[in-house]
Amino acid sequence: MHSSCQISIRYEDFFMLRSFRLCQTIALTGLLTLWGTSASACTGITIRPADGSVVFARTMEFGIDLRSNVIIVPRGHSFEGTAPGGKPGMQWTSKFGIVGTNAFDEPLIADGLNEKGLHVGLFYFPGFAKYQEVKSTDAERTLAPWELCSYLLGMCGSVDEAVEAANHVLVGEVVMEKMGFVPPLHLVATDSSGESMVFEYVDGKLNVHANPLGVVTNSPPFDWHMTNLRNYINLTPQNSGGLDLAGNKIEALGQGSGMLGLPGDFTPPSRFVRAVAYTQSALPVETAEQGVLQAFHLLNQFDIPKGAATSTENGKEVADYTLWTNVVDLKNLRHYFRTYENSQIRMVDLQQLDFDAKTISTVSMRGDEVIEDLSKTAK
Q1: I need a labelling partner for 299 at 20 to 30 A (CA). Which of 11, 93, 245, 281 fits?
Q2: Which helix (H) or strand (E) holds 37?
């Protein structure tokens, strides 16, 4: 039913270990002249604690503030998709309640978790995304690229169901009207069993890749990233023992010598390698709560401060930066987040929500950092 990428290296040998975003583009205003290269730096990772839980985490980078919020989509909410030419597409009614992050107040999910423990997230995929051919008679089963995430979350309870569902719909070359172009996207789906798949539309065909490492970034296609890992099989979390050169002991200058050569830039291939290195070398954790905190710590390595990754687009300098970071606990159904403006970790517990509500509700992600003054607590 679904294809897997070919992996030649043995995972148990990789890094000598014990165990093993939107970039959905929903820019909806005149700001959309900034789309060029300013949405290609999202990073996703997976943590698998010893208690059997599964934690997926991702960053969202963009060159402008997407004004994202957390939205709660109840069961029974009706959606209508979009076919090429802006025509009405497939209609569906969500079977499952969803919590996820949107952009610009749109009622669509860029990254979310449903009540069955399925996570789906959109990531930017420029230069390679080419969607399916859609005939006029296919409109009733057609979605726009940015709608697939919401559809899978609303209708599927597992990765296997998501693969089957994706193979029964068409995703067409649909221009997002307020953007003026077709957003190039791929997505990752992960469920509470730990199964993960990457969905990519390349040359008009849906490719589904097994994702055993639980890592995803952006272009090029996922199977290329897996092959590229062969260039880094020398990396290890163990410090180098040094060399004896003609009787001279040559020792490492400090900690981390086993990871010498780990790429540290913000390009998707480098972030993919780095994400695998960090997740595979991280010390095992026992509980989901520890896994959530570990995921936030690991993704600190992928934060992009304003000014570190810039481009000139339409005569203006655009700086990608990390707008927000999401971490989801697929077993305990909790959605955690922090933002560029407020690094405090906040959480929405799906088990406390009313998914029989009549309308979509919103949890604000707004707010500035709160700095606690402890001066008077000194003893």
Answers
A1: 11
A2: none
With b meaning 16 or more CB within 10 Å and e meaning fewer, what string describes 11-44? Answer: eeebbebeebbbbbbbbbeeebbbbebbbbbbbb
Mean pLDDT (10-residue bins), the chain, 379 residues: 38 38 36 46 97 98 91 98 95 98 90 98 97 95 97 98 98 84 95 98 98 98 98 95 92 93 97 98 98 98 94 86 97 98 98 97 96 95
pLDDT at position 38: 52
Comparing C-alpha atoms, which of 186, 185, 110, 124 is closest to residue 153? 110
Q: Tell me how far CA of residue 295 lies from CA of 46, 47, 354, in angstroms.
A: 8, 7, 28
* Matching CATH number, 14-225+285-366, of 3.30.930.10, 3.60.60.10, 3.40.50.720, 3.30.390.30: 3.60.60.10
Element holding 62 (H helix, E strand) = strand 55-62
Q: Which residues, other chains included, contact 136 with Cβ-Cβ below 8 Å and sequence gap of 6+?
A: none
Q: In the block, which residue shows the tokens 């076919």?
A: 83
**CA–CA gap between residue 4 and residue 212 (Å, rounded):** 10
Q: How long is the chain?
A: 379
* Type of residue found at 111: D
Structural tokens at position 86: 């802006």
Residue ranges of the alpha helices (H) in the chain? 148-155, 159-166, 222-228, 268-281, 288-299
CA 83 to chain centre: 25
Active-site residue set:
42
Q: Comparing C-alpha atoms, which of 204, 206, 189 is closest to residue 150?
A: 189
Any idea where the domains of the chain sit in the sequence? 14-225+285-366
Find all residues with CB under 8 Å of 306, minimum gap 6, and list them.
Answer: 319, 321
Six token digits for residue 19: 């165990």
For residue 259, the SS3 value is: helix
Give the chain's radius of gyration (CA, Å).
Answer: 21
For residue 243, which amino acid is it?
A: L
What's CA 89's distance to the chain center, in Å?
Answer: 26
Is 330 in contact with 35 (CB distance < 8 Å)?
no
Mark out the alpha helices in 159-287 (DSSP H runs): 159-166, 222-228, 268-281
Q: Residues 11, 20: contact at Cβ < 8 Å?
A: yes
